[in-house]
Amino acid sequence: MTDKADKILDNLRRSQNNCTRHDLEVIYTEYGFKIRKGSKHDFAIHAKYKRLRGSLPNHKSFAKGYVTCAIKLIDEALRLAKQEEKQK
């Protein structure tokens, strides 16, 4: 992960206000998600853990639920990766 992605994620954990679409794209991609384009929304699907899926709005303002979902998905991806490391 890059320092930029870590910083954005830390800021979003503290406050979900003022989050931009770009912020969501950065944290999703830096934590292993691939962005698939859609018409009204784009989709973030984790490259390794395919069941981890989120959506990104294609409009300027969006609900905080998108941010909350992104944080939960990233936390789950990190948890799964840590669990795999322990099993090695």
**Which CATH C-level class is it?**
Alpha Beta
What portion of residues is helical? 40-55%
Structurally, the number of domains stands at 1
- Silhouette: globular
Largest beta-sheet details: 3 strands, antiparallel
Q: Assembly type of the shown chains? A: single chain
N- and C-termini, Cα separation = 21 Å
Strand content: 15-25%
Strands across the major sheet, in which order?
1-2-3
CATH-assigned fold name: Metal Transport, Frataxin, Chain A
Tally of DSSP β-strands: 3
Structural class: alpha+beta
What is the helix/strand order? Answer: HHEEEH
* Radius of gyration, in angstroms, nearest whole number: 13 Å
> Number of helix segments?
3
**CATH level-two architecture:** 2-Layer Sandwich
Mean pLDDT: 92
Poorly predicted parts:
none
In short:
Helix content is 52%, strand content 17%. It has 88 residues and is α+β, with helices and mostly antiparallel strands. It has a single domain, classed as Metal Transport, Frataxin, Chain A (2-Layer Sandwich).
Key structural traits:
88 residues; alpha+beta; Metal Transport, Frataxin, Chain A; 3-stranded antiparallel β-sheet; 3 strands; globular
